[in-house]
Structures are given as C-alpha cells and as structure tokens.
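Interim report, section 4.2 (structural modelling).
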Amino acid sequence: MYSLLKPCKTSAAFEAIPGERFSLDLDRCEEILKNVCTIVAHAGILLIVSDRCEVSIHKDGRLVLKTDSKDLACEQAGRIAGWLEGTPAIQKHRDWRNSERTNPSAGK
Amino acid sequence: MKLIALISGGIDSPVAAYLMIRRGVEIVAVHMDNRPFTDEKNLDKTLSLVRHLRNLTGSPIRTYIVPHGPNHITFARKCDRHLHCLFCRRMMYRIGERIAEIEGADGILTGESMGQVASQTLQNIMVVNQAVKVAVIRPLIGLDKVEIIDIARRIGTYEISTLPGLCCTIVPKKPSTAARLGDVLREEQKTDIESLVEKSLEGMHVFSPETL
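Predicted structure of the assembly:
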C-alpha cells in the first residue's frame, strides 16, 4: 500500500507515500481505527491516531508518522495499512488515461 | 514599554524579540501550542529559545503556552480551507491582545517579514491585522530570510530554532496569498470566535521567569 517512506525536512517525522492513487474516507477510518488505536483528533481533512507513535492520516492516503525512528515509522505504516486494506475506507481511483487507451471509443 | 511576543519554535520570532529587548522593551512570551498538528519538540524548542533570550539579555521573560489545536480543528471542519492560515493568525493576535490586557502590555510583537510565507503577503498581513485593535510591532518586516538568519546565528538562536520539530500538518496545500477581509469575516461567522478565544485562555499555562 505504501511504496515510499521519506523523512520530513525537519527530520522530526517520516512521511509514507501511497504506491497507487486512492483516497480515504476518514469517517470510516475513524470507525475502524478506534477499535485498535487511540483517536487523537479528527479535523475533517486529516485524522490523527496514536498507536506505537502518533500518525496523521490525510485524505489522499499520505501518512505523517511522528517518530525519528525509520524502523518504527515503517512498522507503524504497515500496521495502519493492514487495518485499512480491503475496507470501504479506501476508495481506489480508476486511472482514466488507461481506461481511454483500452476503450478506443471512449470520448467519441 | 511592554510587548506580548508571539514566539514559535522557528527562526524569526526569537530574533524579533531579541531586537526589541535590546531596545529596552519588556517582553512577555506567548507560544501557541499547535499540537496535535505539530509535536512536543516545537514546545521544547520554544522554551529553550526563551531561556536563551533570558540568559543572553538578562531580561526576565514570563511565558504563556496557549492550546491552539482545538481552534485548528474548528476552522478545518467549518471554514474555507484556503483561508486556514489567516484564521490561525487572527486567533493568535486575538489571544495576544487578551494577554496584553492581562499583562498591562502596550502591544503585540511578531516575527512577520513581508512575503516570506503565504500568510505574510501585504494583503494578508492587513487582513490579519484587523482582528485586533492593539498595536502590532513587526521589527523584521523589511528584512529577508538571509538577513534574519544572520542575526539568529549571531545571537545563538539559529541552532535552537533549526533543531528537529514537526511543521504544522494542517496547513492547506494551496493557502490564500491575497485574502479579502469580507471573505474571512464571512467564514469566521461559521464559528464562535469569542468562545474559542475563551477556551484557549482557560487552557493556557504560565511559566514565571523563575520556573522556566
């Protein structure tokens, strides 16, 4: 689910970038995650939870993991992905460019 | 003269405070605590910066820590995202103004420098300024970042300001750079500003110069 883990510019956190385009329904995320970790805040556009470390979950799927340990950040991103993968909280985006290529009549 | 210095953990605001202390102004520091949208490192950095300024200048500095996270949540849920940084700064000014009343201070001191970030364009500074009646002093307004960093290095705050600390995670992707006051006022009407200010003040914590 996450293909890249990069340190924030201030070295205070890591950012996990999704490997494919999807968006998150944060209300559904909250419903799922409240059973397995602590909900710190739900600001509508991002959800903050606390588990092994505090995590900001953005609508576009990005995670900001508040730790300076890469191992912990990697483990925490995996835990979040494991809880959300395959649930209705994830809305995958159809790639319109590919669908146009496979369907020559599209757009006519 | 006494001023309420809005101090973040960044580079600019400690420089602004230093310049005014050097001119004989008494400073009271106010830090808006943006957790959970930042981390505790920013609070630690701010307290270290205030201690450094105290040791550097010999000036005792009382410090207020004010919870600002709940205000962010309200604005993010109810108001136009593009204007978020203006709502944030207008709240900081309002709270600074209230603390100025408590402290008998003559105004607010900020580290704003024109055009440095989206919320500090001339148009946006004008919109933010109209949240309060008290005087706002901006000693860095005409300096560029290199000039500010030079002073920060010279007074020893740069090394503290650049320690790790999470940037605000609720900043919009496309913040407004030329907000109109009418739009900001209309959006703020979706919230209870006075109640937000009161709750922020109820939750604040004060460090006396002796306990810091």
